[in-house]
Write a structure and sequence with these properties.
Elements lengths: L6 E9 L2 E10 L4 E4 L2 E4 L2 E3 L1 E6 L11 H13 L4 E4 L6 H10 L2 E5 L11 H15 L5 E5 L15 H12 L3 H17 L5 E2 L16 E2 L14 H7 L6 E4 L8 H4 L12 H7 L4 H7 L8 H25 L7 E2 L24 H9 L3 E4 L6 E3 L4 E9 L5 E10 L5 E11 L6 E8 L5 E11 L5 E10 L3
Length: 472
Amino acid sequence: MGHPNLYRVTLEVLCDGQVSDSHSFNYGIRTFRMQNWIAYLNDVRVFIKGNNYGPGDTRIATMTREAFDRDMRLAQQCHMNMLRVHAHVEHPAFYAAADEAGILLWQDFPLHWLYRREILPEARRQATQMVRLLFNHPSVALWCMHNEPLYTADTKDERMLTRIRTYASVFIYSWNRDVMDTQLKQLVEAEDQTRPVVRSSGEYAVPFLRPGTDGHYYYGWYIVYGRLHSWPIIARQFPDNIRFVTEFGAQSFPNIESSVKFMDADIAKIDWQHLTERHHFQPDVLAHWIDWQAAGSLEELVQITQDYQIHVNRFYIDRLRLAKYRPTGGIVPFMFHDSNPAVQWSILDYWRVPKRSYTAMQLAFSPQYLFTVIDGERFPVAVPREIPIYVVNDAHQSVSVTVLAILTAPDGRELARIERSLDLPADCMTVELERLRLTPTMVGTYTLKLELRPEDGENQVQQYEMIIVPAR
């Protein structure tokens, strides 16, 4: 969008002609608004791609400006334009780094899950203080007053009673959301009339009841949500819930060189209970989706968990990019980095070593992106399938590209090849280039290889697999 110009403001108090006190800060001039969850920066429509940013370190005071600058570079290199400051207020150097990098910030007020009613006066006081503390930072684009005001004591607790209490707080009534967060939103809107204010994050749109806010989806991770392929059905039935998605993902182990810093290199000697209690690992949840205990080595465990995380992230991103502006205005997965050595949803570990999932998200967030969406996990032989091929451009200038698609059978035979050159308009919605029709004649894995060659830039290559099984 251009260079993030900043200006230096200096205030001085003079007493008898002498400077008694002074204060200086950087400041930027910009407008930001959300219209039906589509962002406009300086009245220019922007498709938001970002990530959730937890504390830079569990010990926030140990973070430095240099460390925050590094994180901003890593975000920009992953084609992100927004970070959600998840459920905390960060070190002052973080906001200065975001200002200079031109990264937009979704700023959460530090409320997470449920609170007793007596905290309301203190919450009101601190909400005002947060706005006054951060008001002058142009990177701060919007405020959110509460993350997930729903009943959750432990994300590993999947008991039926817990599910019922959670559902009730989501769909029926929550004092935290319906009373406290409503008051906090009104308070902050009165304090700051320049930024959008979100009442609570993860608030589902319920027809005839409430319009909802941004969406959180853990299909393919938390068992209470269900299978990954159940999500597109919900998204089609209730499209208002995919207007702006700020959480989804799966846990994975850090790369081997980082994992061995806080666990034994011999998988047979790893203390799994310690990883669960101290390093956030959710073994039972992971076991529901992949047989991680069958891994014969720590290297294999790193491989299969990162593979699954990549699969989950691309599943959501592809479908949300397909819905760009129809109605999706933003994609903000969970999460960017680890605040301590951990097995979490991050794409960067505590030492900021990129997992393979970082590289995969870098591709999935590319300004020009070539992809397909095939709903389903396994397909019966001899049943025709349609394979759409999509392309999109998020850049604010038109781009000339060449696309190549190759479909191969399990025995390596090339079944179809498409090559086409075209000009993508600036910030266009997703375009369907072609629709292949496949009638599989053999059991096995069919592969679709996609290659995008921008006129200026690096080629992008990825592939999708379709598993064909015997007909019932």
